[in-house]
Amino acid sequence: MKSLILAAALAATFTSTGSARDMPDERKPTIVLVHGAFADSSSWNGVVSILRERGYAVTAAANPLRGVSSDAKYVDTVIQSIDGPVVLVGHSYGGAVISAADNRAGKIKALVFVAAFEPEVGENSLDLTSKFPGSTLSAALAAPVSLPGGAHDLYIKQDRFPEQFAADVPKAQAAQMAVAQRPIADAALSEKSQVAAWKNIPSWAVYGTADRNIPPAAMEFMAQRAKSKAVVVDGASHVLMISHPDKVADVIVQAAGG
C-alpha cells in the first residue's frame, strides 16, 4: 500500500513540475551560460530546453556587461553558489568573461565558446574583432549613450539589428530582440584580458560562417590557438544558440562529458 502511495506522489510531482526526463542528473556538471553584448539570458532559451531534457541542471547568468574583470567576478559568484563541477559557456563578449574565470577551486570542468572571443592575455575584444576582415558591427552601432562619469553604452541600431546580429532568425523575433537588447559599456570591449583560462581548462568552440559581428576567420584563429575542439555551422549568424540550439547544445554536452 505504501509503495502505491509513493508511486502516486511521484506521478503527481512529475505532472506538476515536469517529466522525469526533465529532472537534473546530479552526476552531471551544472551548465552555466553567460550571454554577451546586445543580448540577455533569454537568448539561451532553446539551448536550456534541450539541456534540461538531457538531464542537466542549467543556470543562465545575467552578465552585467560593464567590464571583463568585474563581469568575471560576478560570474564567479554564480559558480561558487553551485554545488559540484560546472561547464562554463560564453557567447560573444561572454567568451572574454569566461576566459577570465577564476578556477582556483577547480570547479570549472570545461569552457565552451559560442561565437565568442577567446582572448590571450593583453588582448581585448576590439583587437580581435579587427584582427581579420569581415565584421560590419561598427557601422551598425547607434550613437553612444553617455552615462554619468564619462562612460558610454553601446547599442546596435534597431533597424540594422536583424541583418547584423541575427540574420538567420525569423525577422519578427529579431525585431523584438533589437528592442530588448542590453547595451555594453564601451570600456568593456577595450579592456585587456588579464587571464586566459583556456590555457588550463579544456575548451570547445562553435561558431557560424555567416557571423557579421566577429569574423569567422578570427574565431577559427582563436580556436586553433586555444586548441579548442571546434564545430563550424555553415550559414549560421552571430546568435546560432537561437537559430541552431541543437548544435550548440550538442557541443555543450560533449564538453560536459556526454
Automatic annotation (TrEMBL):
InterPro entries: AB_hydrolase_1 (IPR000073), AB_hydrolase_fold (IPR029058), Sec-Metab_Biosynth_Hydrolase (IPR052897)
UniProt GO molecular function: hydrolase activity
Protein name, UniProt field: Alpha/beta hydrolase
Organism whose genome encodes this protein: Sphingomonas agrestis
Keywords, comma-separated and alphabetical: Hydrolase, Signal
Domain AB hydrolase-1, chain residue ranges per copy: 31-251
Record's signal peptide: 1-20
Pfam family, one: Abhydrolase_6
